[in-house]
Amino acid sequence: TKEEELHHELCIGLSGIQRVYSSSIHRRPATLSSQNCPYTSLIIVVYFFRRVGVQTNAFTSMQATLRSELGDMRHEQPPASQTTSTLDEPRAPLVASSFPFLKRKKYIIAAVTFVALLHGLSSQSISTSSTTTTRHHHDVNYTPIHSDGDRIIRITNLLETYSDKKYYVYGSVNMTLGHIRVKAQNPKDAGTWGNQAWTRRFRPYAIGEIRFYDALDQYNYSNLRTFNIHEADFVLVPITLGAVIFFGSPTDVNNAFRHLLDNEPFFKAHPEKHLYITNNERLLRGGFEDLKLFNGCCGITLDLMKHISEGILVKDFDAPYFRQYIWNHPETEYGKTWQSYGETRPLFQYQWSIGYAHEASNDNYPFIDAEDYDNWSKKNTTFFYRSPTAGASMYNSTQYRHALLAEGEADKLIHPPSAIGQTVGHEQWLREFSGSKYCIVIRGDNPSSRSLYAAIRMGCLPVIISNALPYYQPIFRSLLTYDDFSISIDEGAFLSKPAESLNSAIQSLSESDLRLKVRGLSLLQRLLVLDHPRSLFVSAFVHETVARQLDHHPYLFMGNSASFTLNKEGLLGQDTLSLYDVAEREMMNVTG
């Protein structure tokens, strides 16, 4: 039936119609076009109209405002003299020609009706209950807010049957660089970066990148992967950038990308469809020192960036999302500090965060499935937190990391025993971590911590003290929120009364609340743990990428900025980045 044909377009369609809603209600420039969201906006409203039976008189007050927005969806606008004053004629011929039933008047009326009622109906999305949490210049949000057991089931069902979009993987040995993978498999190979103390920590990141690529490359089912590049919604570029830099040389990087630029015609035609992965914290960030690093050690030249930055970057953090957060929260520590700290500048047109997901597949940790709530509730230890007392974290994080270590503070925690204190030996650390119900995750040199992903792997419910984390490092934000699989405590409340705030957070949750969170944690394991026996990593990866392709950031994207140029010495100067910051500030002042 027509409804069955429309059903599979539901998730992606909702994000499209939200754009029309934003343009109409808030009088902001329309961003929906046949290029970035074809067909789906009208499909979704027709679906909802037929399902809920909305009366057509509800759209009357919106009619004049929406007329121009519906007109924007066509390839060519009619001359002013031909513009009609009613909605009797469809004004989206591209859509109507592809779906003839949309030519009928009642479906266009249905579209207008649904846009008028979108705010009340958007929570009925089949995949997520979307609600706007922060107002920014796109007003597009894919993030559900409230944890819901039925919604977790719907998300699971969605991913288990997901087949809407497809990806393609390049297979050229000039990009897969087999010799790098051989080096990575040798634990005795220190690599190029491994000879420096500050870079040694990036070895597991490099190995994790290879695992991400392998998971996508070894997936051979036609529901999500195509071997015809022209059918692909996005194309995976198999240059494991962090691994190549760690184990290889700038020459390896340059040669691999040279092949992409010179020998792949699809790249020349569609650079925006190409996807790159690196969760190395120092790579592909927008800070002055990071951009100097590109030219210095890694073979990532400014000229190369101008070619590849039109594409999709999967990174350890979500630069556009976090950039918006710090602009909207200037009073916070991160807002004050990071507005002037360049690493939050987005370098790619599309970007999303995979976080430190390599830790969720770290086979040095046991995988403990959180599917069984009863087994989780029988764990012997209540709270786990171990932290070194030496050294200091950036952004004033040390005070939070040491708050619970104050003398006598851990003794106030309910439901003993708990494992709280300084760092211990690996075997004891692993035993305590894996045997705990709640693992405390406190922000460090950035809003995140790798311990979050260790907790996910070992089935320990994260208790998060980091107000900015959901914006800095969202995890598959088109599907889940942190509320689905963790407990959050305000930084100020924790700093004031560490043990009391933890006790209060746990006591406020009923058993049914905990069951929902553990169920969400179990689903997240299927999304992140690559060696999970029922992994949904590939489905979630494709779903998130397609969602982010709709989340365009032309103003925040450095590659589109006139300031993204070399200075007279042939380098990217600090003055150049200052020009970008001024332009961005002016844009933010205009758009909010």
Gist of the model:
The protein has 592 residues and is α/β, with parallel strands linked by helices. Helix content is 44%, strand content 7%.
Walk me through what this model shows.
This protein is an alpha/beta fold and 592 residues long. It has helices spanning 2-7, 10-25, 40-52, 63-71, 93-98, 105-121, 149-160, 173-176, 178-185, 203-217, 241-247, 250-263, 265-269, 288-298, 302-308, 319-328, 333-338, 373-377, 398-403, 426-434, 451-457, 469-472, 491-496, 498-507, 511-528, 537-549, 574-591; strands at residues 167-169, 234-236, 274-277, 312-315, 350-353, 381-386, 419-421, 436-442, 461-465, 487-488. The strands form 2 sheets. Strands 1-2-3-4-5 form a 5-stranded parallel β-sheet. Strands 7-6-8-9-10 form a 5-stranded parallel β-sheet, sandwiched between helices. Helix 2 (10-25) packs across helix 3 and helix 3 packs across helix 6. The longest helix has 18 residues, at 511-528. Residues 19-42, 46-106, 118-146, 555-577 and 587-592 have low confidence and may be disordered.
